[in-house]
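<context>
A single protein, sequence plus fold
<entry> Chain with its tokenised backbone below
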Amino acid sequence: MQIQAKCLLLIPLLVSGLLTGCATAGKDMIPRGGYMTMPEIYKQETGIEGNSSNIKDSSSIENIRAKLSDARTNRTSYVGYTATSKNQINSLFKPLANPQITIYIYPHLVHMNGETYPKPAITTNFFLYKSNHFAMPNEKY
């Protein structure tokens, strides 16, 4: 009985605590002094006036271009240090020898549906074995 009475007292306290945590004062939601327009926000953040003529004539465009060109020239190449699936597989699992056979098929005539068609010469390759085999990382071959 005492447990139920304690629960009945605790539930309203918890609910009121949760609801007051979600409440906000309406006065502090919007800063005093009115609303700012988009051009004012843009000017405040970038220091550039909103007119397109001012943007084109501004020296900040040249500064941005200079920073970009510096970043492009100072780029470090990490190609040799970057792990890709291709270089990891090729370095871990070495392919075992499976000779590739090249054949040449001479030009010939193909008879199909009572008609004769010229077939040009082609060169093709195939492997000697049905499938390629790979050595395990510690295997010597």
Observations:
- The longest strand covers residues 100-105.
- Strands lie at 100-105, 108-112, 115-119, 122-127.
